[in-house]
Amino acid sequence: MSTETSEKNNVDPYFQALFADRIGGASYGKDTEIYKFEKIKRAKRKALSDHPGRKLLDFGIGENDSMADSRVREVMNQEVNKTENRGYADNGIAEYKEAAARFMKRHFDVSLDPATQINHSIGSKPAYAMLPACFINPGDVTMMTVPGYPVAGTHTRYYGGEVFKLPLLAENGFLPDLDSVPDDIYRRTKMLVLNYPNSPTGATATREFYEKVVALAKAKQFIVVQDAAHIMLSFDGPPLSFLQTPGAIDVGVEVHSMSKGYDMIGWRMGFVCGHERIVSAFADVKDNSDSGQFMAIQKAAAAALDDDSIPTRIQAKYKRRLEKLVASLKRCGFDCNVPGGTYFLYAKSPSGTEGGETFAKAEDATRHLIEQFGIVTVPWDDAGSFLRFSVTYVADTEAEEDALMQETEKRLGDAGLVWNK
Ligand SMILES: Cc1ncc(COP(=O)(O)O)c(C=O)c1O
């Protein structure tokens, strides 16, 4: 039987029972649960077919809307033609690590040895896949904040470890309550994964919080991985690195990304920096997983890191868009403020409409807003019910941004949303 025929007849391939338990074992590929982003996609399709003339107002896309800066593309243009950039980059070239060290010194006054305390990664996502390989044996625990970016948790489980979830609640400023963690969990915890500025809540960390984390890590003997993907999109003050905290370099690493703050999402560049021994363990696992990012891309990324006008411009754009969005949403009844950082606005989900609809979860509100009003948001129901609005929509001019906001406000006004007080 050809593969095509066996797929059509729903006949399992001979290797169905061979799939590893970590991805579902013999049940792999048969899961009928529909995931959040697939539900959003389906609701968008329905909205477009029910209202073909109505434009979708898409606040659901979590990716920068602009190309990398023209100066970065120009460096790439030149480097791509140089013979010396052609080969395996392995654990990375000195030029990028040195630019990362200059970046950490200039922005955060953190001094790092580029040779031993910094290593590139092919975007920051693979770093979260690889760091658990450095620490997690079966039964070990990774503490992760929820809602959040799940990759380190997924890989912790792949290695037979467990994830202990730390809910991020509005009443705690979206910082985890580390005092509530049971001692049995602390005894088995090897990693704490943090992410500030936080996605999706938009919260930033405080110096006091980081000081507490450093003290706890030493007392309870775990390492800290701080995800700084959105760090250059900080709005409530200068960006704050975990490594600025006294003693932080003794307990962990911070993972940086070129994606958000430098409009380089698809270029796949980031770096892990901090404690030399952790960076070296990461580099060893990485060396056994990939052969490094194309050197021309590393050189373009180094040029980006050396040009502070790039993140300054991108930060100003998303701040402006967030301010406009907050003003519009407030007029429609949302209780929200410009977040401390990220390009996300995380707002309490409505409980229903004046017309009598009720929403048990943010997911219900999302579906209603997409299907009835063509407004796309992302629901989060992990710790309370919230809608995430991303300001990465496509608008070439400020006038287009304003028109989009006006239309959003009109449609949300028509929706007549209400909140349980
Ligand atoms: C919080 C957070 N961390 C890390 C990443 C990974 O970014 P990248 O792999 O593009 O560096 C993302 C991407 O969406 C993110 O939202």
From TrEMBL:
InterPro entries according to UniProt: Aminotransferase_I/II_large, LL-DAP_aminotransferase, PyrdxlP-dep_Trfase, PyrdxlP-dep_Trfase_major, PyrdxlP-dep_Trfase_small
Keywords noted in UniProt: Aminotransferase, Transferase
Highest taxon of source: Bacteria
GO molecular function terms attached to this record: L,L-diaminopimelate aminotransferase activity; pyridoxal phosphate binding
Gene3D superfamilies: Aspartate Aminotransferase, domain 1, Type I PLP-dependent aspartate aminotransferase-like (Major domain)
EC number: 2.6.1.83
Protein name: LL-diaminopimelate aminotransferase
